[in-house]
């Protein structure tokens, strides 16, 4: 007997069914595989086109973004350059105002010195004349001019600070734009063959501090608008400063001429008064000399008349010694008595006239002394007026010289090229 392998035995039909099942399953798997292969090929084609399109679209978006950023970069750079130019112009205008302010120091010193000199006048010469009024008006005008110019300088300094702040915002925004351009241009230059590309952790996250496109545009628009507003205010300020400087200069020149005219006119009047007083003194001295001669003549005549009176008195007294009937009131007696009376009246008249002459001489001496004193004061006052006129010559010499440059409070725009903020 043959040995039989142990295990389950299958029939021929089962064997045939198994073969058919295997064939059917293989055919089905091949069909499924073919379908998957077709779908894979289609997906590959679709995804390849989609990837190429998306990459091209991203590159286009990057190019458009680069163009937008570059346009704003150019606008910001142009605006910043205009701000620099306006800052330089405003700084120059401020320096001119500072120069004009410094130039008022000499006129104020001269006017104050003239007022001080004229305070040295004495007596009746210390009058409140048009020169005093003009000098005081000049001092007040110069002080007002200094106040106005100082206000302009302060306002210009504040406006320079505003322009500096606007420029800082522009340059900061411009720096960001240039950095963004570098980033986007670097992204645009990348390809699938670039060695620096790699997978990143969560690249689709939204970075903190991100802004919307509207906010991005509004931020740059605000910076440019703010800079334009500051430049317009600066231009208006420069125009106002220029106009004010011209007006103040005209006022100062007009007042200077009015003061010098009043000073020359007063000097002319004082010269005339001095010359008139000198003429009066000379005539008074001549009259005093003649009066002294006449007084000497009156005194001599008085002495002579006294001698004649003595003679008449002596004759009358001697004739009283005539004896008896010879003591007669004769014509001689009447004549001597009349002579004595005439001599006494003459002496009285001479004494009165001598007294009047002496009194007149004393009065003339008194007025002569007063005129000499007044002449001294007039000469002193005239000397002070002439010193004042010489002092004011410094104004002409100061105007001939160009004013010294004044160091500005700040040099905010001493730049030749646009410099970006260092980050």
UniProtKB/TrEMBL annotation:
What protein name applies here? Tektin
Instruction: State any GO BP term from the record.
Output: cilium assembly
Gene Ontology, cellular component aspect: axoneme; microtubule cytoskeleton; nucleus
Which residue windows are coiled coil?
Answer: 231-301
Q: Where is the composition biased (Polar residues)?
A: 13-24
Provide the alphabetized UniProt keywords.
Cell projection, Cilium, Coiled coil, Cytoplasm, Flagellum
Pfam families cross-referenced by the UniProt entry: Tektin
Location relative to the cell: Cytoplasm, Cytoskeleton, Cilium axoneme
Q: Which organism is it from?
A: Stegastes partitus (bicolor damselfish)
Q: Where is this region: Disordered?
A: 1-31
Q: What is its main location?
A: cytoplasm
Family note? Belongs to the tektin family.
């Amino acid at each position: 007997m043959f040995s039989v392998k142990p295990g389950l035995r299958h029939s021929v039909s089962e064997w045939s069914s198994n073969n058919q099942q295997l064939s059917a399953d293989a055919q089905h798997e091949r069909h499924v595989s073919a379908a998957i292969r077709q779908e894979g090929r289609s997906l590959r084609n679709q995804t390849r086109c989609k990837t190429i399109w998306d990459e091209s679209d991203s590159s286009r978006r990057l190019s458009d973004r680069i163009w937008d950023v570059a346009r704003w970069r150019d606008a910001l750079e142009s605006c910043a350059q205009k701000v620099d130019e306006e800052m330089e112009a405003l700084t120059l205008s401020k320096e001119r105002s500072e120069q004009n302010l410094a130039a008022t120091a000499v006129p104020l010193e001269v006017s104050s010195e003239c007022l001080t000199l004229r305070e040295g006048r004495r007596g009746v010469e210390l009058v409140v004349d048009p020169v005093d009024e003009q000098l005081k008006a000049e001092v007040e005008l110069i002080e007002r001019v200094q106040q106005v110019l100082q206000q302009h300088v302060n306002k210009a300094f504040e406006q320079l600070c505003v322009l500096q702040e606007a420029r800082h915002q522009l340059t900061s925004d411009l720096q960001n734009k240039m950095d963004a351009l570098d980033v986007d241009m670097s992204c645009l230059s990348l390809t699938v063959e670039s060695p620096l590309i790699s997978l990143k952790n969560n690249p689709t996250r939204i970075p903190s501090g991100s802004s919307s496109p509207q906010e991005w545009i509004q931020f740059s628009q605000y910076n440019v608008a703010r800079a334009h507003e500051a430049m317009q205010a600066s231009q208006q300020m420069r125009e106002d400063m220029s106009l004010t400087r011209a007006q103040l200069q005209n006022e100062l020149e007009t007042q200077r001429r009015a003061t010098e005219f009043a000073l020359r006119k007063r000097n002319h009047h004082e010269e005339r008064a001095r010359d008139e007083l000198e003429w009066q003194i000379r005539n008074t001295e001549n009259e005093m000399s003649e009066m002294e001669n006449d007084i000497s003549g009156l005194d001599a005549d008085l002495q002579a008349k006294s001698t004649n009176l003595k003679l008449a008195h002596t004759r009358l007294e001697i004739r009283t010694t005539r004896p008896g009937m010879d003591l007669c009131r004769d014509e001689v007696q009447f004549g001597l008595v009349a002579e004595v009376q005439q001599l006494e009246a003459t002496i009285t008249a001479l004494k009165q006239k001598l007294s009047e002459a002496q009194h007149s001489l004393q009065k003339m001496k008194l007025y002569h002394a007063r005129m000499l004193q007044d002449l001294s004061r007039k000469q002193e006052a005239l000397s002070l007026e002439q010193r004042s006129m010489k002092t004011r010559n410094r104004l002409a010499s100061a105007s001939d010289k160009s004013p010294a440059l004044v160091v500005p409070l700040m040099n905010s725009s001493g730049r030749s090229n646009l410099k970006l903020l260092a980050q």
